[in-house]
Write the structure tokens for this entry.
Amino acid sequence: MNKLPQEKIDQLNSPLPPEAVAPHPTKPYLSTIKAIFVVERLNEVFGIGGWSQKNEIIPSPGKMKCVHSFLAIPEYGVLLDNFGGNDNTDEGDAWKGAATDALTKMASFLGIGMAVFKGLNTPHKPLEAPQMVPGGEQTPKVYSTAGKPATDKQKAFI
């Protein structure tokens, strides 16, 4: 497996432009990163065609669309995975939203937009997150195989 050179790491970690970050549409205490800026950064750092995303549909009831997504950067032996979800009333937009939700999170594992996830780079002052109450909404757990050996299925994808 090839290691990412420091030059690539620095490019990935460089700040996103202010217009890349916006208040979350339904959770005003959070920020969101516009996915096209993530795509742009991946293209700048690895080149068009130097990375790919594959999504597997996760059956779910109701309007929520969920995917298990994989981000591969074969030249450097990078394979990340995560889940994404979206409940847009337009089914096509919900599927796209689920895919970009997962892509944005996987890109943060590479350093893209990490400051936003840390709450350090927001164009607005987020409100304080609601307090958790017993039996209340739980923060979703993030799943990644980063650091674990790739499965045969994942190797075939790369």
Summary: The longest strand covers residues 65-73.
